[in-house]
What we know:
The chain is α+β, with helices and mostly antiparallel strands. It has helices at residues 11-31, 54-71, 78-88, 90-110, 130-135, 141-144, 176-241, 247-281, 306-316, 318-339, 405-471, 477-511, 519-530; strands spanning 40-41, 44-45, 73-76, 116-127, 155-172, 289-292, 344-360, 368-369, 372-373, 382-397.
Amino acid sequence: MPSEGINPLMPSMLNSFRLGTVVSSLIFQICFQIPVLSFSIDGRKAPRYAESSVVYNVEQKLKKLIQNIKSRSRLVTLSEAIEQSLLKNPRLGASYKKIQQNEWNLIAVRRQWYPNVEIAQNNSYNFLSNTNRNNNQQIPFKTLKSTSTALPTQISNLNTLTPSIKLSWTFFDPSRSPNINSSIEELRASELLFNVEARRIVLEAQLAFFVLQEQQQLIKNYQMILNSTSDQVAITTANFNAGNSDIAAVEQIRSQQLQNLNLLISTHNSLAIASATLAGIMSADPGAFVLAAGEIALVGEWKISLNETIMQAERMREEVQISLAQSSSLNWTATAIKNSYYPKLKIDVSGTYVNLNTEYENGFPDRDTSIGTISSKEKPSSSEHTTWDNRVALGLTWKIFDGGINTAQAQAKQYAAQALLEQAASNKLTIAKEVETAYAQYESSKLALLTTEELVKSASNALLSVRARFNNGFSDMTSVVQATSRSIDASREHAKSKRNYNDAVASLYRFSAQWPDDALPALSKRVQNLK
């Protein structure tokens, strides 16, 4: 199997053709004693045909365009294109963020097992005016009666400090474990989705690279055909000026020359599109282009049979496993909803500390105590009272009946889970179809490589022969134009068959869930960068 593109006109054959046609034309003119530059009829010189400068000017501008593209481009191999796509494509970063999102969702669900601790503190300051003091207003009665048997009438302010702490722990909740299992399955599904996105990016980079290679090969082939056609225009024009050809032949070959030039221009446009597409997949800088290093080559063979490829795809494809993981997640969610009917047990532990600080304007009033009467000199100016309140409570919550709402919601989740199982079965059918299509393309493209290679050789030889016959007066220009068109078609078909072959191999890797060479190291490096 050839690994390089077949040029429709090989350089050695082209050089010998140019030399042979020019020499044979000169010999033909000398033998019949026809002037090379002009001829006359009845003493009058026939008009000379001057070649148009349009082709030359367009070719020069096209060369500048090519140089501009090359100056903004860098050469990449297929491995480099895959590596850069995995390392830089933002779609892969967005997919990994979903994994991290589900990781934290799982952490949040697991932390529901932890107890809750609340700390609160209430401070109150009461500054009493004279009126309030006289009328005993804004004074908490329950607080004051614990510090004195009689209401003090000379309080200036009250300072109350009440910090509290509360611990609550629901240590038995039958719905909690199913919710954790549901989150685990969702996390697994997101990890599988990340692999699917990575495989999609790899395949897109491969297909874009092969298209770019095809366009570069076509440009090379079309340029050689255009050069050969331009030589034929020069020879035909010289023959016309010498009286050996008619104007129809000149215009036919010039029309073919212009068509070849337009084909070359459109192929350069396709090249720019393919380059920009691959640069976008690789996340290159805006305005940058990439070009494929080397000529289009075959990427290898697929050595697994069709049945083995299908079995491997159905076993390893992430799309099937994603549907199964999502179905399992919904089943666990349905179980959690049903378990919400079971009782929940919790324990509450709380403690409250109260500190009451009372300040008096002129000290306590005179009163009798067990140790005697306090004199005015011994009256304190403030008093402080503290208490500590601890409580432990065991609670039970049991939703016995809610009208069947949770039962209906659980049933809906179960049906959604069953739908995903059916989706997994449907995915298997789709996967088998994808493998069969890619395998058929692989087999047909192998045959097309053989036929198009021979087609290129045959069309090239036919074109050389027809041109030589025309230049020696044994054929017409129509045959030359038709041979040129067939050579162009053969070149296009051969390049297309190579691209189809490479596309098929890359698709078989993708559809059978196999990574191409150098893909996994780049993917592992990207994951490390994203963490």
